[in-house]
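Journal club side-thread
Mid-discussion, someone asked how the predicted structure for our own chain would compare to the paper's figures. Pasting it here so we can look after the session.
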Amino acid sequence: MTTLQKKVLSTQEVADRFNELAQQEKWFEIQEEFFAENVKSIDPPGSPYMGYAEGKAAVRKKGEDFVSRIQAVHRTYTSAPIVTGNHFAVVREKDLTVQPFGRIQINEIMLYEVKDGQIVSEQFFY
């Protein structure tokens, strides 16, 4: 008998699929497909919008909490990824109305670390 082994995607392959889903604003699908169980999500220290979360469920809740406060989406943009080694980065621009902040613009670099075909870290710079 042979066991079926799932092919481990390269960082480039993860970034390509990430980009495909990001262009469709399918952020929770990205989390489901690629986030490791021990993933870390890191916002800038003192961010009024979001903070730090560790573990797939906690990172999901962090995203759901933010999304639940969005009252209007005025514009979103995500660049194609830049890949090197086991990292890739994208530019993300958001113009949103978010409770309790009102209308905000966030221009950020999102940095992802990939290990064994899974995203183990996401860090936001804004």
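Post-session note: Helices lie at 11-22, 27-34, 56-68.
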